[in-house]
Amino acid sequence: MARLYHLARLNNRCFRLDEPLDVAYQLGLPVDGHYVSGCLTDFHVYIEGGRPAWQRFQELLGVLPPADQIQKFAVNCTWFQETFGECPDGADEETVRRFARAYIIMLLGTQLFADKSSNRIHIRWLPFVARLEEMGGYSWRSVALAWLYRCMCQVANRHVVKLAGPLQLLQSWIFWRFPGFRPVGYDAFSWPLASRWSGYNPGVSEKGPRVQMARLRIDMLQARDFIWMPYSTPDVLQVVHPVWEIHRAMLTMGLEWGRSEITSLACPVTTRHFRRVRIG
């Protein structure tokens, strides 16, 4: 897989940043693997066997959402939460696989590839969850970064007012590299590194002054205000290196990242939102 780098400039100095590695450290996503590719708009044309998208949805998840919960090829989050909120005790293998597919679709649609609506989940991921055993074999790191870049390019348009995508990745990247923007009291961290800020929830009432202060800080940034190598300190290496070596060894041995289909996507930063395939 080609290595992707970003050339950053601060005043008169340029630095190369390994942003795919950032994604791997921050979210714990697989580094190597198959490309995640497909058609964003006409994905349904390429569904296996040429079957209609909603027919395939019912085959894989065992149920269809009501018409009032569907908007073209997106389903309201509330329906997903109410229908697949928790896998029942004693469920058979097929039921567990259906809940696992729904969990992964929710994970992808709300955490890594969320749209600006914040309340709908697209079903374009059906071809991927159809083969649960292969989910850990894709380079989710690369596609998450590409999706974030796409969303950031779109929001640069002056007529666009909302930013979509894996915003927890962007927020964590900022906090790790710009100490002046970090919230107070989040000194402890573990793997993946973005989980460091899991309890951070700024008040909405302070949005206006906070944005103004952030803009002022950006205007006054100096080279010393940016951490170019945040993962090279001993305390971070103690967390990152052992886990990373285990993941590399597992991939070398041809093993899956997760212990089951539910964890095969390997995005542990979001598991705090989901317990026993439970949303809420």
Automatic annotation (TrEMBL):
Boundaries of every Aminotransferase-like plant mobile domain copy: 22-236
GO terms of biological process kind: meristem maintenance
Pfam families from the UniProt entry: PMD (PF10536)
Record's protein name: Aminotransferase-like plant mobile domain-containing protein
InterPro entries according to UniProt: AminoTfrase-like_pln_mobile, MAIN-like
PANTHER family: PROTEIN MAIN-LIKE 2, PROTEIN MAINTENANCE OF MERISTEMS-LIKE
Coiled-coil annotated residue ranges, if any: none
